[in-house]
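Entry type: protein chain
Record version: 2
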Amino acid sequence: MISREICQRVLHKAVSTGADYAEIFAENTVNHSIRMIASKVDAINDAVVAGASVRVYKGLRSVMASTIDTSEAGLLRCAEQAAEALGQGSAQIDIVLKERLFGDIHPIKIVPSSMSNKEKIGVLKEAYFAAREYDPCISQVSGTLLDVDHNILIASTEGLYAQDRQIRTRMAISAVAEVNGESQTGSCSPGRRMGMEMFDTIDPKGIGLKAAKQAVIMAGAGYCPAGVMPVAIGNGFGGVIFHEACGHSLEASAVAYGQSQFTGKLGQKIANEKVTAIDDGTIPNAWGSINIDDEGTPAQKNVLIEKGVLKSYMIDKFNGRRMGMASTGSSRRQSYAYTPTSRMTNTYIAAGDDKNEDIIASMEYGLFAKQMGGGSVNPTTGEFNFAVNEGYIVRNGKICEPVRGASLVGKGSDVIMNIDMVGSDLDMGQGMCGSSSGSIPTNVGQPMIRVSSITVGGR
């Protein structure tokens, strides 16, 4: 995208007022989406994001400037703006950029842009009509097929000059069912760091059927009773509860400023010994995986919690300065227009030894949260509130009637202490995580787990 020679001149300009570090981040991203509603294609969209940013550090101060003009003149102006904002001074940094090839651990077989819209629409229709025709009570279906081709370049005063190409594909189906005048929605939205070969392993029809089945079940369900009770949380997207309630509190963006419930607790027991939690950006072709992070640090497998003991945080370069710790390959950003910071990639509770049937059998009365929804959390306190998209009452060790309107309310540090059973059926779910550096693709995951006691909101 930008030659090494130009990057070197821009970096020299960036450190001209005394910065001790500077970096360039450039990108060219193409987002392509097809949407269906009312049994027909409603929209086909292409969106291009292209530009660059220059970021400078001086001690614990950081300034970033961005531009859509990636000519040498435009980049030099951008670097000058960042340098002037940082302050007055001078610097003598010898900058020699050397290209690094980190390799690609996420091979792509079918680049989505090589397929016609007609072929893509055919795949989307398979999922759409599988949902639409599942049951007469399905009143509405919407579907989207998204592919992203994200190309980045990173150059820094540490001598780094590297590029990466990230291709991702995702399908999302949402179905609405009406039963006795009551409407409920079901959804399914798998994604991978893959091209269109994703649908060789994920059946489009299965995506539609899963969304429709959930809608029908929930439309015919009664309301969940409220109270404090044991809860079994299903695998896959159930991991969102750890992601939100604890994961954000383990990011350096919170830890470095003492705004995390887990600040200063490395080496301490913070969870039940059944809990081992990992953030791993190296899982081949996983939705949240990377080759390098957005500061050019190679992806890593970071064990955050091991048998209940806090082992590591997720750290970016800048916050690592404040903490006196090295980057863990966790710096991410939505685009060049956002300042990068520590973020999750593929974050999950590792598989345990308990059997799912034993987890359910252990509950005299409680809730089985088969499919979790969205929620919110305060990373400083760890207090959260999550919706349950598909839930069932557990009575005398058996899964009984479906219930809707359930939510889980609690505090992250309490919940991970109360996870007392962990199954072996580890799976992942896909989402977009929003934070100060924008919206980024992340995987959440876990096997089935049991929380011995948690507040369930309902009626």
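Comment: The longest helix spans residues 117-132.
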